[in-house]
Amino acid sequence: MSQIIRHQNLKFSSSTQKVNSKTIEKTINLGKLLVSQIGDERDVDTLTKWMLHYIADKIVQSEKTTGKYKKASEKECFETILKLWQHRAVLKNGYRPFENYEKIFTVLDKINPDEKDRPFYNQPKLDLELGKNQKNTNKNVNLWLATALHIDDTAKVLLEYAFEQASLSAKSRNVKSYLTNISDQTSGKDIEVIIKYIDKSIKQKKIKDELKEKKIKELKERIYFLNSFTKLSIGLRKELKSKYILLVKEKSIKKVVKSKRK
Asked: Is residue 99 a part of any domain in this protein?
């Protein structure tokens, strides 16, 4: 299971005494979404189906209750929904709220900057001012380190764009409804990722005029990095190809010499 999914409920608090009415309202709306989307499905496991029926009853009860008992009824409904929401990652295939994004979470796990075996592009920036502050610096060393950092910057640009596009492709009709009703009590690592990429990509589709200039600048920077990287990769390719050709020739010569000796 993805680390993002495993730690999805880091923000969940068992204390509901100070929860405001807006949070309770949003959480009850989450319960309604869960009930409407998977409550009547035949292949849902018995426990989940029972929980959803129980939540549906609590929702109806909280809406019908009036007077001094209404707050207590809403709180009980709220706490019941939270218990099921905490286990959203273990619902059956086809019924998990953010199932479409699980592959995205898995890939993010693999390039997580907190991982010990993280790829180079996620490591903290090398102190490349190293050449400026040291005597007798080796120009070739600094050139290759500058190349490494340029690849690092380009990789980040490509990764960000790739995750935005993957998020757009994974978007489903129900996700926006879930995100609209997320609160501090129902948020988690999975939802933080969704808000970072999915919600951002949704907003970009309906970009406001005042944000267009910022978006143009962002795209211009991305194109600049990619153009620079293209030039760099062409140079690296030529160098690698030259070394390859040289090694192949050396191998061929040795083979000819060896055959003549025979």
From this structure: yes
Q: How far apart are CA 215 and CA 17, in angstroms?
A: 43
Counted domains in the chain: 1
Residue type, 189: K
Q: Tokens 């390039």 sit at which residue?
A: 111
Highest mean pLDDT among 12-21, 36-45, 132-141: 36-45
Residue 120 lies in a domain: yes
Q: What is the pLDDT of residues 26-77, one digit of tens each?
A: 999 999 999 988 866 667 778 888 888 999 999 999 999 998 899 899 999 9
Task: Tell me how far apart the alpha carbons of residues 8 and 249 are, in angstroms, rounded to a whole number.
Answer: 56
Domain that holds residue 174: 3-206
Reading the block at residue 67, the tokens are 């007077």
Residue in the structure block whose two tokens are 């959203």 = 88
Does residue 251 form part of some domain? no
